[in-house]
Amino acid sequence: MLDVTSHPVNARWPAQHPDRLQLYSFPTPNGVKIAIMLEETGLPYEPHRVGLSDADVRSPEFLSLNPNNKIPAIIDPDGPDGAPLALFESGAILLYLAEKTGQFGGATAAERHHVTQWLMFQMGGVGPMFGQLGFFHKFAGKDIEDPRPRERYINEARRLLNVIETRLDGRDWIAGDYSIADMALAPWLNALDFYGAKEMVGWADHSRTVAYVERFMARPAVQRGMKIPAEGS
After folding, report:
1. β 73-76/21-25 pair status
2. If you ran DSSP here, which 8-state letter would residue 173 be given?
3. How far from 146 is each of 62, 128, 149, CA to CA, in Å?
């Protein structure tokens, strides 16, 4: 049976509290999703800061937990039926935590499907497209002379923002009540500021989306989760 202290990842990121859920992450939009959910639910956990360099994410220890070498990942010593569970992919982890705690995943079957729908919207659309926008605007891709890749992701980011702006008409949260869909989506919207891309995608023209992110960022659990895992954890 899986045990936190005997798992290979523990050799590099040792658990001080092996009875708690172990979070292996970094404070990126994908990483903070899980920290925010854990802070919102009050579930006891221990965070470990996994850097984004190959030295961490491609280390044998981390690959033993996530062969896809991406943060975040978790080990829950109290998983389904009381057995430990290791899990990667931020969307899958959010769905698992919603089911485990009975919180933020929708109160009825129909609500759960709507939450999942908007979670998948972020996972399949907003995250990949905004990430590429950041690459071509702020990081190595900015040096590519061909303007077409940059224009493609600027236009797609604008399209996705329009979808969100329309959806938020008359709503405070993307899928009804505050949910894991918001914990997934809002950090990626907030990342446009880090990328320095707000002006180019017409951020100020999306007043409902602007207010949505402000509402999200004002939550105390979000403010805590955005800083986790901290340096040295």
Report:
1. antiparallel
2. B
3. 36, 20, 7
62-98 confidence digits (pLDDT tens): 999 999 999 999 999 999 998 999 999 999 999 999 9
Question: Which of 125, 134, 114, 120 is closest to 162 using CA atoms?
Answer: 125
Bridge partners, 125 (sequence order): none
| Long-range pairs, 163-169, Cβ under 8 A, ≥24 | 163/121, 164/126, 164/189, 164/206, 164/209, 164/212, 165/206, 165/207, 165/208, 165/209, 168/208, 168/209, 168/212, 169/208
What one-character DSSP code corresponds to residue 230?
A: P
Which H or E run includes 197?
A: none
- Can you give the pLDDT at residue 1? 53
What is the DSSP secondary structure assignment for residue 119, as one 8-state letter?
H
| Residue at 161 is within a domain | yes
Q: Can you tell me the distance from the alpha carbon of 129 to that of 37, in angstroms, rounded to the nearest whole number?
A: 23
- Shared-domain flag, residues 100 and 124: no
Pull the structure tokens for residue 31: 């990483």
CA–CA gap between residue 147 and residue 228 (Å, rounded): 36
Residue 113: pLDDT above 60?
A: yes
Find the CATH number of the domain harbouring 192. Answer: 1.20.1050.10
CATH label of the domain that carries residue 82: 3.40.30.10
What is the C-alpha separation between 202 and 152, in angstroms, rounded?
15
**Does the model's pTM come out above 0.85?**
yes
Distance between CA atoms of 161 and 202, rounded to whole angstroms?
A: 9
Q: Are residues 120 and 191 in the same domain?
A: yes
